[in-house]
Amino acid sequence: MKEHFIDLLEYNSHFNQLLIESYLENKDSFNEKMISLINHILNAQQIWNSRIIIGSSFGVWQINPDEKLLEINQSNFKNSIKILNERNLDEIIVYKNSKGDDFQNSIQGILFHFINHSTYHRGQLAMLMKQAGLEPINTDYIFYKRN
């Protein structure tokens, strides 16, 4: 199971990186909503990682400096891999959500959630990129695996 999650995390990081690079190359074509979604994808993974490793977390919708986006993506990937290597996927994590409500989920459930969450928002970004006259990135998992 860990190998499967490593594969999914690599997929997630790869397409986050391509999306960030596209943004950095086409800043004038990215509107506020698009920039917000890119940051939200990165922030969410950082928040979930920090809930597992008990660290400080980003704001859900904070806007990070452009020059830090690639670094944040790499850091997110490294921390997620560290979690996979050092923790049990069935381990239950007790945490508070952004509204302060208490919840608990397994590490496996959390990893699946933020990977799926990222995919959802990359889909939104593909639509917004097309509307802005940009070529959207095909982020389908099967195309990733074919390459």
Describe it for me?
- The chain has 147 residues and is mainly alpha-helical.
- 65% of the residues lie in helices and 7% in strands.
- The protein is built from five helices and two strands.
- The protein has a two-stranded antiparallel ribbon.
- α1 runs antiparallel to α2.
- The mean pLDDT is 96.
Mean of residue pLDDT? 96
Percentage of helical residues? 55-70%
Order of strands across the main sheet: 1-2
What is the 3D shape?
Answer: globular
Blueprint of the fold:
Layout: H1 2-25, H2 32-53, H3 69-86, E1 92-96, E2 102-106, H4 107-131, H5 141-146
Antiparallel strand pairs: 1-2
Features:
two-stranded antiparallel sheet, 2 strands, 147 residues, globular, single chain
In short:
The chain is mainly alpha-helical. Helices cover 65% and strands 7% of the residues.
